[in-house]
């Protein structure tokens, strides 16, 4: 969005433009009367494909409506040399020649006038425009629901998904993704520029349609058959109606979205093919630092690897679990069988185990750059760069040569999580494996917004999810059925995938 104006809008205003722009605002953007809203519902269709969705734009030079997502308005603009069009959902003006939404003071004044007119026709005063309610005003609005601008019980964005045959693993991940704040902003603002030969084969285009379906206001369950077909096409190991793993689907979906985003203008840069700035990497990618310390010369070799999620071992697995609870007795990190922490296991316990120093032993010697010989070493993982959305995968399904089973150990996880102790910059604050309490930074604090759960056994189970719509307002998504849930219901659940969002980038 440009706020510095546009020369093409200035040229457009040399014509008698005000009446046509005012008509678009009155009839389609800020339509107030009932008959105007009905007119909008009937006539807001793309003149090329007849679709109601796809972020319709109206040409400012002639009478033409076209899809922005399918680029029908772009085709019209090029063919007729009509560069300016208006988004009929938000009233913003798009310039094809500038390839951006543009701001103009005169257009803004007309928009504000028509918005006030529409509010007055619906019985609201001018003070509601750009209004932020105080606590007292919220109480008054609750007592007078007909004048309410916002609602604490608003459920826009909540929509069930039909199970197409053991597709609960997909439905629960879709619910988490569609309620990821920054991802929602991206897909609802048409920032995707499809670079694939066939947009019908693009998973990002399908996600754009899916977000529009979720936030369209319809309450009937959505049937995600297109999404399932694209998943089968681009991730063939997930094809078929057998039960699949939700974590495996999450990684496959992020990978396909990442690959299909590379054609975006905001995707992979031509001058640096190893760097990707697509929306998936911006939100989900973090940096994991691995420090290997030689036991002879104390030389440190550091590598940094990107990650989309963090997989955490649980007590009860065949791998040893270091007792990290403050009341636990000291133990050897790599010795004997599985070690269970004293008391309930927490997410912080699992993260401490994940970032503890680990002695690699004589059977895994690494050539030291300082000694120039193979020596025993110690390896430690820490967080070098935190993602906007941190996804934690609790490894409940164990597959080994000896056994295949589900680990149902309860792991307590918090509503708010501070990742400061697990940062690479916090390594020096650790004494004997314990984490010292020091200064924390708001940039490392997260809030829980989605939880995926698995009920049943390894052979037969079912996935559900908890979604936070507003602060402390949670809902349980069980395929097509959505019910209200309490914070206690969420925190008492078993937990398989935990989604946390950076607090400094959150909004209500």
TrEMBL record:
GO terms for cellular component: nucleus. It catalyses: Thiol-dependent hydrolysis of ester, thioester, amide, peptide and isopeptide bonds formed by the C-terminal Gly of ubiquitin (a 76-residue protein attached to proteins as an intracellular targeting signal). PROSITE patterns: USP_1, USP_2, USP_3, ZF_UBP. InterPro entries: Papain-like_cys_pep_sf, Peptidase_C19_UCH, Ub_carboxyl-term_hydrolase, USP, USP_CS, Znf_RING/FYVE/PHD, Znf_UBP. The keyword Nucleotide-binding does not apply. This is Ubiquitin carboxyl-terminal hydrolase. Keywords: Hydrolase, Metal-binding, Nucleus, Protease, Thiol protease, Transcription, Transcription regulation, Ubl conjugation pathway, Zinc, Zinc-finger. The gene is LOC116951573. It is found in: Nucleus. Pfam families: UCH (PF00443), zf-UBP (PF02148). Its EC number is 3.4.19.12. Signal peptide: none annotated. One of its GO terms (molecular function) is cysteine-type deubiquitinase activity. The keyword Hydrolase applies. Residues 4-121 form the UBP-type domain.
